[in-house]
């Protein structure tokens, strides 16, 4: 099974928010994501579709 990862822009589109909002959520730890970039200068944040679905479900339940 291959895990599919979404970029902040893709996540923003799914959630109906601005990409900068997603970036803020990631940087503050509100939205869990992994940095796939080997460089610390420019992050390459991604979140798996499964993790995003869990995050959305947890927010809906709260």
Automatic annotation (TrEMBL):
Domain of life of the native organism: Bacteria
Molecular-function annotations in GO: DNA binding
A Pfam short name: HTH_17
Matches recorded under InterPro entries: DNA-bd_dom_put_sf, HTH_17, SinI_DNA-bd, WH-like_DNA-bd_sf
Gene3D superfamilies: Winged helix-like DNA-binding domain superfamily/Winged helix DNA-binding domain
Domain Helix-turn-helix, first and last residues per copy: 5-60
NCBIfam families per record: excise (TIGR01764)
Protein's name according to its UniProt entry: Helix-turn-helix domain-containing protein
């Amino acid at each position: 099974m291959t895990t599919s990862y979404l970029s902040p822009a893709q996540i923003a589109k799914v959630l109906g928010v601005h990409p900068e909002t997603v970036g803020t959520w990631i940087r503050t730890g509100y939205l869990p994501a992994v940095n796939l970039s080997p460089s610390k200068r420019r992050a390459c944040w991604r979140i798996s579709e499964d993790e995003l679905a869990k995050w959305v479900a947890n927010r809906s339940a709260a």
